[in-house]
Amino acid sequence: PYRYGVHLSPPDEWIGADTVIVCCGVAPATGWVASKAARAADGGLLVDAHMRCANMPMLYAAGDTATLPYDEERPHFFQQRTWAQARLTGWTAGLTCVRDLARWMSNAPPPSPPAAVDEEVHVPVGLELFVHTTSFACQPVVMLGRHDGRHLDRCDTDSLQTLVSEQHDPPRFVRATLHDGKLIGACLIGMEAISLAETLENLILSELNVGHVGAALVDGSEDIEDYFD
C-alpha cells in the first residue's frame, strides 16, 4: 500500500510511507565501555553538565555516547544529538578533563598543573539553552529553547501560548512559545527573522515576563530590542 518505507534499527521495525522527506537517527554505541558505568534508558552514559560520568567521575563522555538528564538549573535545554551539541560536549569534556587533572596534580611535585585549580569549567550557553541552526527551502533557520512546546509536563502545557507571524516577501516566519507569560522557545525562518535571535535568546535566559507585549513580540511592529535587550 506504500511506495516507500523506512527501516528502523533498533528496534527492527519497518514503517511504510508515501513520501520520505528526511530520515535520521542516532543510537549511542557504548557497548565497549565498562558495564559498571551508569547508563540512561537510551544506552548513553549518564553525565553531569561538565561531562563527567555519574558514578565514575574520572570517566568523561561526549557527543552521541553521552546522555544529559534534565536539570532544573537548565530548564531551557534539552538534548538532541546534533553536530553542534556534539562539538560543545566534546569541548566541555576536554576542558573538564584538564581541570580535573590539574586538581589531581596540585598535590604532586612540579611541573605545574596545566590549569588553575580554583575554578570549575564554565558550562557553555549552548548547554544551558537549546540552540540549533540549519536551513530550509534556502532560508536560514534558528530554533531556540523549547521551540515546539515539547519536553514539558502535561500540567505545564495547559498554560502555553503560541504567537506566530509570517510574511512571504521577503520570507519571514517567527513563532514564539510562552509559558505563564515567559518566553521559553522560538523558531525563526528567514534573514529578517533570525536577526531577532540574540534578543529572544536573552529573553529566554532572563525569564522576563513578556506576556503583555502580545503580537508585537513576533510581528516586528515594535523594536523589542529597545525594551528587553
UniProtKB/TrEMBL annotation:
InterPro entries: FAD-bd_OxRdtase, FAD/NAD-bd_sf, FAD/NAD-binding_dom. Keywords: FAD, Flavoprotein. The keyword Flavoprotein applies. The keyword rRNA processing does not apply. Its cofactor is FAD. GO terms for molecular function: oxidoreductase activity. Residues 15-72 form the FAD/NAD(P)-binding domain. It comes from the Eukaryota. This is FAD/NAD(P)-binding domain-containing protein.
